[in-house]
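Chapter review: from sequence to fold.
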Amino acid sequence: MTMAEETTNARSGNEVIDELRTWLDENWDAGLTVGEWWERLGMAGWSAPMLPTDSYGRGLNRADALAVSGTIARFGALGAPQGMSIGLASPTITTHGTRDQIDRLIPPAVTGKVAYCQLFSEPGAGSDLAGLTCKALKDGDVWHVDGQKVWTSGGQYADMGMLLARTNPEAPKHQGITWFAIDMHQPGVDIRPLKEMTGHAMFNEVFLTGAEVHDDNRIGDINNGWAAANTTLLHERSGMGARGGAGGGGGMARMARAGGVAGDLAKRAGDFVAPPKPVTATEAPKEKKAKKSVSPAQGLINLAREFGKLGDPVIRQRIVQAHILGSIAQYTTERHKAVRSQGGDIPGVANFAKLLMADIVRLNRDLGMQILGARGTLHSYDDPDAQALLAKLPGGRAAIAVTSQALGAQALPIYGGTDQIQKNIVGERALGLPKEPGDLAKVPFNELPKNG
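The token string follows.
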């Protein structure tokens, strides 16, 4: 079983959830440290249930994996470690790695012991990722890496990096790249956070000067890293496209962070979860009741009602648009699930989904600010006192979420491949349209014109 197949177990989803509930009854202990709990969760296959069963997962499809995370949350247990270790690195290693690499690199990822970052983009190679110039030279069993990366999410908290490096400058640009899992805690790796207009520093620039990575951590064949990179990017875009995005609202507990840098592994697991809601007899009948439908735009609907703008015809029109786009995103996920369960696929669905989610965040940005009006000009970046003050204004924390989302909405249409790149991929790979004239994909990288 491979990640590409994303097949479900022969058992039904209900049987899997029943097994999970039994396992949680027997294993959850709020007094464990985060690291101890994640060790149990990860090695039982519940941290990364979409991974194959022989790669520390459960072989579930995306919808059933989401049901697993929801069940853990409703139980009142700490959920799986979040981030690139499980979402990007583990699927890539599972697909392209050796048995030894799977057994050596995936357990620390699914148990939260290590956090990964993505060392792909460069100052001159963002949208044209294959134009990267960071180089790796082999000396025996060790590769020496020199170059610069940028827009590295979470790099300041990472223990390991997913590195793309040029290993053959004489090959065409897509054919001379290799994928490595590199240690970020070594001399020669300099991480510099980049503060954004959101007030946070999610991204970083990373300078690699004589950094080393052993050949044992090369994932896939030498000079065939573009295949592994596409696996990483596929999961990145699928994850972006699968996110809810129409202004749902609702609170969540403080999230425990994976890896040794963040410092959460030694903390008490129970401190990161809210107590479970008691289930009443009316909430848990033997016979299933139809779930009440909640609009993907419910958070925006609530906000418009609070600000007295639910009757505004322009606002109502845009709320309907938000509902429609959010519903399409949900239906796309369900459609893909159904097709995959029958052994098929939908070409370009990850790219479609990312493009759609980019439209959703832009619409939510504009609509949210339109609802807030002058209140939308107030935002606190990192001052707790100002945050507390803003929470007392109309809209409360929902309004804070809107202004935060508005500042960050510009990112999704860019990172993970710009909207324009997604459209090129859909046109060429999904629709079979001819490539643009002047294709340089077959020209040796060292003979390409500057910025070619």
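Two observations follow directly from the output. Strands lie at 116-119, 135-139, 142-149, 160-166, 177-183, 189-194, 203-214, 218-219. The chain is about 40% helix and 10% strand.
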